[in-house]
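Question: Send over one sample?
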Amino acid sequence: MTTLGIIGAGNIGSNVAKAALAAGHDVVIANSRGPETLTDLVGELGDHARAATIEDAATAGDLVLVAIPLAAIDTLPTAPLAGKVVLDANNYYPGRDGRIAALDENLETTSGLLQRHLPQSHVVKAFNHINARDIPADATPAGTADRRALGIFGEDPDAKRVAAAFLDSVGYDAVDLGGLAESWRLERDTPGYGKPMTAAQVREIAAATERVVQQ
């Protein structure tokens, strides 16, 4: 099975970890405060999870989930993530992240900013439009009627195939909705944000979504 590196042990990171472990993957998880602060979480997650430094989680992961505040992405190490598929679960929250002019003016996307910081990695937007607690709770086997779907965005077709296969393994259909420049379609305050949807519904709602000025 895959080893998933997770950078960010908050709500999204810890719940993706639970879903990944339930699917038989191994997890190496890190936060900004050091592995010693993750003892309780790793104890809860079980034997196939371990805490590590950010650099170690980036190195160990066959693919890596980034689930940290947007304002902190410039602190991510680039070398251990080079050549890897990096799943980006971020959304822009000005109250948390500060104002970012390129996002306020709709000139960039959060995943575009991450890709710019990680030019040798293959960033795929994923897990950003589902409530954290739903990630392990709503997972169902492939072929389940009305299975919940999640949109993905990215520039590299092979990376999106890797991301889609991982999503399928943890219980979700993946819907390829284009490049990173389109990833605003399922971000905070859009109609599809947090809403359980099938693959057809994801496509429909993403296509109908209009971009608005950030507030």
Notes: The first helix runs from residue 11 to 22.
